[in-house]
Write a structure and sequence with these properties.
single chain; alpha/beta; Rossmann fold; six-stranded mixed sheet; globular; binds guanosine-5'-diphosphate; binds magnesium ion
Length: about 170
């Protein structure tokens, strides 16, 4: 079994104002508003458990506004995190079109953000869960203002990526 550090690039995509930069700030600085422009790459070391083992990984984090049709911006990414704002109407067609264009080898998930505004929500689990299932992606309900919600998403993404690494080693 190979040990050592894993370096994974993860890319946040989604409409402007869905909260991508805020989530990235939460991950990298554990604060709401990061002192960064939202451009360029940020790094974050994460520890996570894989079975009984503790593992270390480093995430290289990219943010892209919109749904890039040009796959070049996604090159090298291990995971694509599609951020949606629960206070906005969900756009299933746009998002499933994007998902169908993404390489099946990548881990893709929907990150439904701003759940602290649950009572203003126009998009919620009854719509998101069946969508995620149908499109074979995972779903995380988060708020960039709630540290735990973002942390557990990152832990799960790391675990999913680890499962993919292990799968590759077996085959
Ligand atoms: N209430 C609430 N507001 C949020 C949350 N995440 C982001 N925002 C706000 O949504 C707006 C857009 O956030 P930003 O991170 O710049 O979105 P981006 O354009 O996708 O990078 C800002 O005013 C944020 O403060 C959240 O979880 N809850
Ligand atoms: Mg941004």
């Amino acid at each position: 079994m190979m040990s050592g550090r894993f370096i994974w690039k993860i890319t946040f995509v989604g409409e402007p104002d869905t909260g991508k930069s805020s989530i990235v700030s939460r991950i990298v600085f554990d604060s709401e508003v990061g002192n960064f422009s939202g451009k360029g790459l940020l790094r974050k070391k994460v520890s996570f458990s894989s079975g009984n083992e503790k593992k270390q990984a480093e995430f290289i984090i990219q943010e892209v506004d919109g749904f890039p049709s040009d796959n070049k911006v996604l090159i090298g990414s291990a995971a694509i995190l599609i951020v949606v704002d629960v206070t906005k109407k969900f756009q299933p067609d746009k998002i499933s079109r994007f998902i169908s264009g993404v390489d099946k080898k990548l881990e893709v998930c929907i990150v439904a953000n701003k759940i602290d505004l649950k009572y203003e929500a126009l998009t919620w689990l009854e719509e998101l869960e069946p969508f995620a299932k149908k499109n074979h992606v995972s779903l995380y309900m988060v708020s960039s203002r709630v540290s735990d919600s973002v942390n557990s998403m990152i832990q799960e993404v790391a675990q999913k990526l680890m499962v993919r690494v292990n799968g590759k080693q077996k085959s």
